[in-house]
Each structure stands twice: as C-alpha cells, then as structure tokens.
Design goal:
c-terminal domain of poly(a) binding protein; single chain; 119 residues; mainly alpha
C-alpha cells in the first residue's frame, strides 16, 4: 500500500497555521516552518498577557486611588487600612471609578477611613 504524503489532514493543519499567521511580516506569513514558530510564540504571548492584563488594571486602579487619596491628605495604604478597620468592603475598581467620576462620594469614603484610623 502506498503512503499518503500530502493528505487532507496535513494540508488542513498547515492551512490553519498560515491563516493564523496572516499579517505577519516577511516569511512568517507565507512559509509554514517559520509561521509555525511565530504562531506558537504569539499564542503563548496571548495566553500570558490575558493573565497579566488583570494585574495591569489593578495597578492602574491603585495609581488612580492613590492620586485621589493624596488630594484628601491621606496615602493609599492608610486609606485601605482605614476602610478595613471601618468595615467598608469596596473593591479597587469601584474606588478608582469613584475617584474619577464621583469625587464627592470618594471624599465621603476617605473621611470614613480617616475617622476609623483616628487621624
């Protein structure tokens, strides 16, 4: 029995890889061997960075909260400690939103944290 060299499965797999490499520069979009490596690396980066995005947003929220806190005369860490002591459960995403969109509400929260700290 003869051996199938260029079967449909093999062709479909190569076609799939080259389709994923569409838009890549140079041989990376047309040569299967280089495209395969480029696609594997890009899929790894995509997976890793989906995880990193969450940390990036948390970092951004903390920066925004800290900037708003300092306008109120308190640091970020003292604000969080005061909120914990006061029993206020609000996440950083919501706090950052308040710091930008609703400054008056943020001032009330900051004042509550200050009183809980006894400052």
């Amino acid at each position: 029995m003869s051996r199938a060299v260029d079967g449909s499965k093999r062709k479909n797999h190569r076609k799939k890889i080259l389709k994923q490499a569409k838009g890549y520069w140079g041989r990376r979009h047309s040569n299967y061997k280089t495209a395969k490596d480029a696609v594997a690396k890009s899929l790894f980066y995509a997976y890793r960075d989906r995880k990193d995005r969450k940390a990036d947003f948390r970092r951004l929220w903390i920066i925004r909260i800290n900037a708003a806190c300092r306008a109120e005369g308190i640091t970020y860490s003292r604000l969080i400690a005061g909120l914990i002591r006061a029993g206020v459960t609000i996440n950083r995403k919501a706090l950052a939103y308040l710091a930008i969109e609703d400054i008056e509400a943020f001032k009330v929260i900051a004042a509550r944290a200050k009183t809980a700290l006894g400052a």
